[in-house]
Amino acid sequence: MELGVLLVLAAAAGALGWFWLDGVGSGERLMKGRP
């Protein structure tokens, strides 16, 4: 049970981190005027 919860939390944290990094990268490209 606890292991399953940890796996779910780890997956959610990884997904949020990926989207956050992707958003930051896209924002920097837009601010620099590059595609």
Helix and strand arrangement:
Elements: H1 2-32
Cα radius of gyration in angstroms: 15 Å
Overall spatial form? rod-shaped
> Can you count the helices?
1
Element-level helix/strand string: H
Low-confidence runs (pLDDT<50, min 5 residues)? none
Helix content: over 70%
Q: Which whole number gives the mean pLDDT? A: 78
CA-CA gap between termini: 45 Å
Q: How big a fraction of the residues is strand?
A: under 5%
Q: Can you put this structure into words, describing what you see?
A:
The protein is mainly α. Helix content is 89%, strand content 0%. The chain contains one helix and no strands. The termini are far apart. The mean pLDDT is 78.
Kindly summarize this structure in a few lines:
With 35 residues, this protein is an all-alpha fold.
List its traits.
rod-shaped, mainly alpha, 0% strand, 35 residues
